[in-house]
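User: What would this chain look like folded?
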Amino acid sequence: MIKAKEFLIQKLIEEYRDIGKLTPSDIEFLHRVAEAFMNDRENSKHRFDIIIKYMPQAHKILDMASGAGTSGFYGLLNGYDCYGIDPSNWKFEFLQMKINEYNYPKEWINKFTLGYGESMPYRDSEFDFVSSYQTLEHCVISKSA
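Assistant: Here's the prediction, encoded as structure tokens.
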């Protein structure tokens, strides 16, 4: 197993453990999740099929809460100008590991930003398409006083 995948599994287990007790079936599930997150060549095809169907002219794409970078890397591998933003430090570290181990162009790390969707370093209308997949369940809603 490569270092990036081992790192990813460790971090997923840590995050899951924070939620509650970890069972053997949970660990098995997280190994399958990690396998999917390592598969940049196929895992996000369904997302791009939807983009192509509804916005075939989209070329510059932002993935909000880009996580393990699977969608961004899929797009980059298929000729799109993809970017990602995510607030997690360990995921940014993981992206660097993935770039190194998969021998992706080193400058691809510049396509990913550590940050939050509420305060992005991009200009208005900079992207043709903005994607956010499996994100809302991680958002915290606070009530104003």
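The mean pLDDT is 91. If you want, I can go into more detail on any region.
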